[in-house]
Amino acid sequence: MNVLLINGSPHAKGNTYIALHEMEKIFEKEGVQTEILHIGNQDIRGCIACRKCAETGACVFDDAVNAAAEKFEHCDGLVIGSPVYFASANATLVAFLTRLFFSTHFDKTMKVGASVVVARRGGLSSTFDELNKFFTISGMPVASGQYWNSVHGRELGEAAQDAEGLQGMRTLARNMTFLMRSIALGKETYGLPEQEPFQPTNFIR
Asked: pTM, whole model, 2 decimals?
């Protein structure tokens, strides 16, 4: 089992990292391999809808998105962590995720997803909802914890004082590990769910 954790904060060792690292410690105890990929400080532009990825299998902009694609394909679970900016995820992270999910055409069905959000005070639930949509559009089960997966903190290191938030991260990591293992057993016994041919319907006159 292996989990890829995406740090969408500009700060490599900030409050978002503290939350992700709390999960990482539990994964290590459970024998799950992890990698934290820091993309929040990188120069990542948004998708331009050129659709070249449909022809080449990779994004036309050869940056951190293409570098992460193979890691994403081979992971059993994906954790996305972001600070909250104006009740939304970091724009760099959103650009990264939009291109990553759109340009990769491997089957993401039953990879387990989890999102983690960090804020001084508010905007957590809207950001949490925003990030989870990347999973649900891809057939990825969403792991849950004991609350919305959030930690509070503004100044560097303050997240370490949020005892309930950090407990939520540990719970989330344990639940995610259980879900990944259960899915692996289910695949061995039953295989993946049958998929019907896609039926695109455009609502135009």
From this structure: 0.95
